[in-house]
């Protein structure tokens, strides 16, 4: 055929066509499809580009748009036989083994180059989504522990026509894939063979043995700490955990009776530990204790088993994936190195229960904090009911509750629509609490300016205060709004708030695109109590702990540090007016008890972080990537003596959650 222009028709039948125009060919019922290329006049839509002696025109998409230029593309011919085999190994390129491709650092020495004659046994397939492909392993490894013998052959949205146990010979281009697609990514990359061609040499071959992961297998140190990019450093798999996993990238590993330390998520993932004694909580989790003490036993599990064949398991922290779980190792932006399971253990119930705290006595003031995770009036009633039962049943109806992540009345559905009020959201919540058997709470909050407080776009997130008017009185002082700063005033020698509720220095740059603290003045049994609800800026923008920059930069700490200074300044004003004022600082501070922000708040003993009073293995209110950690806090001034404090675990450890945070509560008897 001509290499410059022409038309090819797919017809039903063997009678020669006589149509000479696009319209006539379209009217011929025998013509099922056609493609015109080059300068062809008979075509669908616009013609596709002309091929040449070394290229072909092939479908670019399975959707027929009736426009040849859209539906077809020119490129290297990719013939496939009836077995699904391609033209295979010799398409030009450097002959290579898998360990040559993987190399001794995180980046392939052959990245960007074509390779040919790459042999291995197919160990696993991914047959769904847009990242399909197969993993293969060379059954004849070299002697270097740094070089992986496994690799992913990436086929995109096409299911590869291979089977586990096939011996294949592959050619293609070696590519370093970053999960966010950016050249300046902070994540690590996955070494892949892209644009592959392969031939199946034989089938039914025995699989290379999986690497067993035991409690002693993975090193305790995370990674070298050069203060920069570690990609070019030689791997030390016996010394660093990230190096260990990189040296097994693409290979099949197995874990036996793995303990679940992070519950199943909506993204069909579970976090387990390969080190069951590593910073273990009494509920089966793994506590995060410091920047320099990472939990290297944590491993994320996903599944390559089609969900129609086996639904992804629902597991809580403390459960066990009983039996073997095995599959190839792949890097992901969430959780880092991941076992893509082809064999998945059965969930064995670990027996943890949702906790219930005790009820406060008549003389005790109970103050709780609860992040209700983007609650808005458009949420399903089920979420309101679950949160309400948490308030009534699990927290025993506290007298005061600071709320974080209250959204406006139409939540994220109304970005830029001018709606900032949250009265419908709070009305539905307080109604649900009554329906759950709790008191009729009142609320106080201040509407933010639209789009100025961060959080989910359109949600106009804010903090708020609930209180039981039968137990505690709120001191209302008018004038508080989104931009007016609350100050400390003295009346009869005692401190009070200039506006109540009032926002703490809302115009300060520290609160840019972040929630502003809300201060409220309460009276309990004749005692004045100041409660400040908080939600500091998130950790968004921090480099991942498992990324290619070590140690990772925690850029978000800067703003939280500034926020802590502003908040501490306001607390200092209260305490300067009365060193024995009852001050409670509560909320989601988005930082750890050992962080600079918390050190600012607790410096000099002005405030006590109640989480520090718990045993180390109980210091958590949130589970992220398998780490049980602290983001929520209740801090108290020195006037609050003999505080009874409790983190009530009802969400973070469970696959079914009303929120991703656990609430906290204090009870104390005011003495002045």
Automatic annotation (TrEMBL):
It comes from Amycolatopsis thermalba. Residues 46-63 have a biased composition (Low complexity). It holds the Pfam family Exo_endo_phos. Keywords: Endonuclease, Hydrolase, Nuclease. The keyword Nuclease applies. Residues 368-661 form the Endonuclease/exonuclease/phosphatase domain. The keyword Hydrolase applies. Residues 42-95, 537-556 are annotated as: Disordered. It comes from the Bacteria. GO terms for molecular function: endonuclease activity. This is Endonuclease/exonuclease/phosphatase family protein. PANTHER family: ENDONUCLEASE/EXONUCLEASE/PHOSPHATASE FAMILY PROTEIN (AFU_ORTHOLOGUE AFUA_3G09210), ENDONUCLEASE_EXONUCLEASE_PHOSPHATASE FAMILY PROTEIN (AFU_ORTHOLOGUE AFUA_3G09210).
């Amino acid at each position: 055929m001509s290499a410059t222009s022409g038309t090819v028709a797919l017809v039903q039948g063997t009678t020669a066509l006589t149509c000479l125009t696009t319209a006539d060919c379209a009217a011929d019922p025998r013509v099922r499809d056609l493609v015109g290329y080059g300068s062809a006049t008979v075509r669908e839509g616009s013609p596709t580009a002309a091929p040449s002696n070394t290229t072909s025109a092939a479908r670019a998409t399975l959707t027929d748009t009736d426009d040849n230029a859209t539906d077809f593309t020119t490129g290297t011919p990719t013939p496939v036989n009836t077995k699904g085999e391609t033209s295979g190994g010799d398409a030009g390129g450097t002959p290579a083994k898998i360990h040559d491709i993987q190399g001794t650092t995180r980046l392939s020495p052959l990245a960007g180059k074509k390779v040919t004659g790459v042999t291995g046994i197919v160990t696993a397939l991914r047959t769904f989504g847009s990242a399909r492909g197969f993993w293969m392993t060379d059954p004849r490894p070299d002697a270097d522990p740094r070089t992986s013998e496994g690799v992913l052959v990436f086929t995109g949205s096409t299911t590869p026509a291979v089977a586990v146990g096939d011996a294949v010979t592959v050619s293609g281009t070696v590519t370093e894939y970053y999960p966010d697609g950016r050249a300046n990514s902070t994540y690590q990359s996955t070494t892949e063979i892209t644009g592959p061609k392969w031939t199946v040499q034989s089938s039914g071959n025995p699989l290379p043995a999986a690497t067993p992961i035991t409690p002693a297998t993975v090193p305790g140190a995370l990674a070298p700490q050069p203060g920069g990019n570690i990609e070019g450093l030689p791997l030390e798999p016996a010394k660093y955990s990230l190096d260990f996993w990189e040296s097994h990238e693409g290979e099949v590993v197995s874990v036996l009776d793995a303990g679940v330390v992070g519950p199943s998520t909506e993204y069909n993932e579970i976090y387990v530990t390969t080190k069951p004694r590593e910073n273990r909580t009494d509920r089966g989790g793994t506590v995060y204790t410091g920047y320099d003490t990472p939990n290297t036993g944590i491993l994320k599990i996903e599944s390559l088993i089609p969900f129609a064949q086996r639904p992804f398991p629902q597991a809580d922290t403390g459960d066990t994936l009983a039996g073997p779980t095995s599959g190839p190792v792949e890097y992901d932006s969430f959780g880092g190195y991941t076992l893509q399971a082809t064999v998945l253990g059965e969930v064995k119930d670990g027996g943890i229960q949702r906790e219930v705290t005790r009820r406060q006595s008549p003389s005790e003031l109970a103050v709780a904090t609860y992040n209700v995770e983007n609650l808005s009036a458009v949420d399903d009633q089920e979420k309101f009911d679950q949160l309400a039962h948490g308030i009534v049943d699990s927290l025993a109806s506290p007298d005061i509750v600071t709320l974080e992540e209250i959204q406006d009345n139409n939540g994220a559905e109304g970005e830029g629509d001018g709606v900032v009020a949250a009265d419908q959201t709070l009305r539905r919540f307080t109604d649900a609490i009554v329906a759950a058997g709790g008191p009729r709470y009142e609320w106080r909050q201040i509407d933010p300016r639209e789009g100025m407080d961060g959080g989910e776009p359109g949600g106009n997130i804010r903090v708020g205060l609930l209180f039981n008017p039968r137990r505690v009185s709120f001191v209302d002082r008018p004038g508080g709004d989104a931009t007016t700063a609350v100050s400390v005033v003295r009346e009869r020698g005692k401190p009070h708030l200039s506006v109540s509720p009032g926002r703490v220095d809302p115009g300060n740059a520290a609160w840019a695109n972040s929630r502003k603290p809300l201060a409220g003045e309460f009276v309990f049994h004749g005692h004045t109590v100041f409660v400040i609800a908080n939600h500091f800026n998130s950790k968004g923008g921090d480099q991942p702990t498992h990324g290619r920059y070590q140690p990772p930069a925690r850029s978000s700490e800067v703003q939280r540090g500034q926020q802590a200074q502003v908040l501490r300044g306001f607390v200092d004003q209260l305490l300067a007016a009365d060193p024995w004022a009852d001050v409670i600082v509560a909320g989601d501070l988005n930082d750890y008890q050992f962080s600079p922000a918390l050190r600012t708040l607790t410096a000099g003993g002005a405030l006590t972080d109640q989480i520090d009073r718990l045993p180390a293995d109980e210091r958590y209110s949130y589970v992220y990537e398998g780490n049980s950690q602290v983001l929520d806090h209740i801090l108290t001034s020195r006037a609050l003596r003999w505080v009874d404090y409790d983190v009530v675990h009802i969400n973070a450890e469970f696959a079914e959650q009303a929120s991703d945070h656990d609430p906290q509560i204090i009870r104390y008897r005011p003495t002045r």
